[in-house]
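Q: Study each token:
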Amino acid sequence: MTKLGAHVQHIERLFKQVKIIYDQNQSPFDGVCHVAKLCIEKISRSLKRVQSIANGKEYWVLQNDQNITRPYLPTLLIESSDEFERLWGVVVRSINPSTHVIELDEDTINNVIYTSVMSFALTYDLWKPKSRKTPGTYFEVVLGSIMSRMLPLHTRLKHIILPGQAENVSTDIVFQPNGEGPSLVIPAKITTRERIVQPFAHQRILDSVFGVGQYKSILMCVSETQRDEDTGVNDICVPGTIRLFQTHLARMYGIYYLDPPNRYLQDDITSIITVGSVASFLSRDVVNFI
């Protein structure tokens, strides 16, 4: 086995350990930090970087001898693993379970979470590209761990039991209050692509079974970009679909991105659904939904 392969397998083993702890309803902050640090160090080593512009933003892709990564926004990526570790600690210490928010500036929150998620995704793009679902699972673990600390009076679940039904609603993260109040449903996606219908459909089912307002779906994403051919970048926004689903299928309660698409920040979308950064949700908006 090459040193390269051994290093990536070490990251994979560490993440499996992190996931086991997460599935035990804990928040494995130290493990997430360790994995992200290794990934930052991994992608920083002698890789070709190619620039591309999409909607006024400068994206890069990384390239090795065999593979090309998804696009990423270099202005959001922390390049030093030591600096990431320091700022990750700042974010974790700034989580206030009493006020249910992260008491920190939005830029720091967004950069730290983006770096954690994208460094992992870029590493897998280059050295384990067939593991397509794993980066999304990592995003779920990062987000679920942080929000569990923010919402100590909620229980974190993955499934919603439908009374009298053989099927359940399976989603990424559910926060169910231990007392009165609505439950939060958090679909966590790197990008939505053709899956944008899924959170709306789940919300429609939950509204039908439990009544409107008992479950509030908040879609959390990294971005809506994809590679165009080799190294170009395309936005994959579907504003017309979102307007149609929000108006006629079910009412989602918000869409939040680490890298919000400019198109979704325009008035025809924000007038019917809240759109913002993940950091704005974690530092402010979350209290509006619990």
User: Anything to note?
Assistant: Residues 94 and 103 are 5 Å apart (CA to CA). The longest strand covers residues 169-177. The longest helix spans residues 106-127. The domain at 153-288 is CATH 3.40.91.80 (Restriction Endonuclease).
